[in-house]
Write a structure and sequence with these properties.
Length: 306
């Protein structure tokens, strides 16, 4: 067999040249039909993801997020602007939270004029973004002048839940039935909690309880109790006020002082030592506010009954 320069049995067949498919480098571009199929698949994926993506909702505090989650379920994506463990009086939104706020279609406000976080950071933003739906918890509520903690009153929360469900149904009509069913289940839980607290605290109507931060005013009003607070105007008491508060606490027979995370306990501890009371921590900003209020009611009835 001739194995010379002309090629022979040891030479591999010469590869066939790739055709130029579109004017660029040969072989690098798929045929038009394949490109069209990939584009169609990408559009279908985008459409499918939009179907499953939840309605972006922003809220001020975790208890509001609980309402939105219970009503919206998997149809919502909730961002809490004031995360757990921070103070509404001093917190400012992080860049991540600001980005979520930019994409929100619904904002749930506390709405109290003394809720300074919203006055500083949220109200100016909403004014510049009129397309965002807003649910105001303060709407229709009888406000306490200096107390923005509306979420500790089940009746106020029930009203807010109904307005949240209506707003979500407007944003996503195809989920209206689901939102309504979830709302009714939530309202039943709120009604049960409210009736339980009324029965448990009825024997103590008119009695006082002592807290460090005055976050329980609406709860006290709802169940016929009186809230005494150590902190006044966002500041710990001075020496004279502290002495007067100690005398008042003794007169009221206070044996428990309720404190919450994130606040200095020095004044509360001083009063507790003087009157022989103990400190009990309850977080009014906790996400599961139904559980929080139920627990607070139990602790309060024990403190007042003991």
């Amino acid at each position: 067999m001739d194995r010379g320069a002309g090629g022979g049995g040891l030479c591999h067949p010469r590869p066939r040249p790739l055709r130029d498919r579109g004017g660029g480098a040969p072989g690098l571009h798929p045929p038009p039909r394949e490109r069209g199929l990939k584009s169609l698949l990408a559009l279908l994926a985008l459409w499918a993801s939009s179907l499953w993506a939840g309605i972006p909702v922003a809220v001020s505090v975790p208890p509001q997020a609980y309402l939105v989650d219970r009503i919206g379920g998997e149809a919502v994506e909730v961002t809490v602007m004031i995360p757990p463990g921070t103070s509404p009086e001093t917190y400012a939104p992080s860049p991540k939270e600001r980005l979520a706020l930019e994409g929100a279609r619904l904002y749930v406000k506390v709405g109290h004029p003394r809720f300074l976080f919203e006055k500083r950071h949220i109200d100016p933003f909403l004014k510049d973004h009129p397309g965002i739906h807003v649910v105001d918890m303060a709407e229709g509520a009888e406000l306490l002048a200096e107390d923005p903690h509306l979420w500790v009153d089940p009746q106020i929360m029930a009203g807010a839940a109904q307005r949240i469900a209506s707003a979500l149904a407007e944003l996503s009509p195809r989920h209206r039935r689901r939102f309504e069913a979830n709302l009714q289940a939530l309202l039943e839980d709120i009604r049960h909690l409210d009736e339980t607290l009324k029965a448990r605290l009825a024997p103590f109507r008119g009695r006082a309880f002592l807290v460090y931060h005055p976050a329980w005013g609406y709860f006290a009003r709802r169940y016929g109790l009186r809230q005494m607070a150590i902190e006044q105007g966002g500041k710990p008491p001075g020496p004279r006020a502290l002495i007067a508060l100690i005398e008042k606490a003794k007169q009221e027979g206070i044996k428990v002082i309720f404190v919450q995370p994130g606040f200095d306990r020095q004044a509360a501890e001083a009063i507790a030592r003087d009157i022989g009371a103990r400190l009990v921590e309850v977080n009014p900003l906790a996400y599961d506010w139904l559980h929080t209020l139920e627990t607070f009611g139990e602790l309060l009835s024990e403190a007042l009954g003991g």
